[in-house]
Amino acid sequence: MPCQSRQSRLLSALLLACAAAWSLPCPGQEALPAPPRVVLQLPTENRGLFDGRLSDFYQVTISKRLQSGMYGFVRSNLPEPPPYFERFHEGIDIKPVRRDPSGRPLDPVHAAADGTVVFTNLRATASNYGLYVMIRHDYGALQAYTTYGHLASVRVKPGQAVRAGEPIGVLGWSGNVSSRSLAHLHFEFGFLLNRDFPAWYARFADKSDGPNEHGLYNGVNFLGIDPARILLESHRGTPPTVAELFAREKTTFRVRVPARGRPLDFQKRFPFLTPGGFDGPAPASWEIDCNRIGLPLRFRPSAEEVEAPELAWFDESLSLQDSFTRGLVAKEQGSRVLTRNGKKWASLLSWPH
Questions:
Q1: What contacts 310, CB < 8 A, 6 or more positions away?
Q2: What is the C-alpha to C-alpha distance for residues 48 and 55, in angstroms, rounded to an integer?
Q3: Helix 340-350 to helix 197-204 angle, to the nearest 10 degrees?
Q4: How many CB atoms lie within 10 A of CB 85?
Q5: What are phi and psi of 185, to 5 degrees?
Q6: Closest by alpha carbon to 193, among 206, 183, 181, 204?
Q7: Share of the chain above pLDDT 70, in %
Q8: 121 three-class SS
């Protein structure tokens, strides 16, 4: 390597000094803390996900397909073999690793992260998830929730603070699991849609929905993302931030909802999803980019007047398999529209009206 001239060395030193100065906060201004990372640990003793033994980790359904225990559109109501998978599974199903001589699972279930127990369902017939626990996790001002379903027993109470790895129950097959041979832990990671859910439910629930026995923590009020990916990233030492979790989701469709001159509840709790902030003129409506299950990814103000939620855009480049939206969007007479369920979901996002 040729020797540097004295001038070149001085210039290099000056540039390094400038770079160091630019990385420092201004006088009297503190450096912003790094955003907290979402670190999850396995909620049971089953380590098959980390060891690459997926058939030992995921509990398959009656279809016997490995993917049926994974997150996403992995199941179907169609005759075997189905040409596509239209049924959505919001979490992952984890196999037990310990059973007694009668086949009853013995695996303890642990909190996947530090948090606060916000809900326990202690009546198995009150939910498809049977006995289950929900825990809130705080990441600075942002919140996420983990759900632990189909338990045999529950060891914690609402309001109780728990640490990562602390036992909260025992794996089982309560709820809609057909037999102990299919016992598993249903595990979810997700976000609450609206803090005024009970009032919305009282206004919009159908008779077929039944009473709201779970209050704010009704499953309708949550949308999840794949917890397996977060578990793997945590295991590898590269856990994401909450903002990164939203940023990597793909926009599938866009809705337009009345703004009523104010930000929506979800916007206020996740302000980074509204890049322009809330300080400008009050918009007539909000345009919301959503992933395929309806999780809001970005909010934009719009001058378009709307009286009720409407579909503004759909990604028509998607394959049939990738175009399923939990029944929120359908094609009618050649055009995409919000379905009845889609309008209910959008009304929950924009509640109160």
A1: 255, 256, 338
A2: 8
A3: 140
A4: 20
A5: -100, 120
A6: 204
A7: 91
A8: strand
Average pLDDT over residues 296-309: 96
Answer whether 183's CB lies under 8 Å from 150's CB. yes
Model pLDDT, residue 28: 57
Q: Under a CB-based contact definition with an 8 Å cutoff, are residues 306 and 257 in contact? A: yes
**In 3D, which of 142, 38, 138, 90 has the Cα closest to residue 291?**
90
The pLDDT of residue 232 is 98
CB burial of residue 295 (10 Å; 0-12, 13-18, 19+): buried
Residue 321 near residue 85, CB atoms below 8 Å: yes
Rounded to two decimals, the pTM is 0.90
Token pair in block for residue 97: 């690793």
Is the CB of residue 324 less than 8 Å from the CB of residue 86? yes
β-pairing verdict for 161-162 and 185-192: unpaired
pLDDT in tens, 214-238: 999 999 999 999 999 999 999 999 9
Beta-carbon neighbour count of residue 83 at 10 Å? 10
Among all chains, which residue has been given the structure tokens 């379903």? 149
Predicted confidence (pLDDT) per residue in 128-152, tens digit: 999 999 999 999 999 999 999 999 9
117 CB contacts (<8 Å, ≥6 apart)? 133, 134, 135, 156, 157, 158, 159, 160, 161, 162, 168
What 3-state DSSP class applies to 125? helix
* CA 352 – CA 265 distance, rounded (Å): 9
User: Going from the N-terminus, what domains does the chain have, and what CATH number goes with each?
Assistant: 48-236 (2.70.70.10), 250-350 (no CATH)
Q: Report the sign of the C-alpha dihedral through residues 116, 122, 127, 129, in that order.
A: positive
Q: Which two tokens stand for residue 279?
A: 């300080």
Beta carbons of 283 and 259 less than 8 angstroms apart: yes
What are 62's two structure tokens? Answer: 């009656």
| Cα 56 from Cα 13, distance rounded (Å) | 56
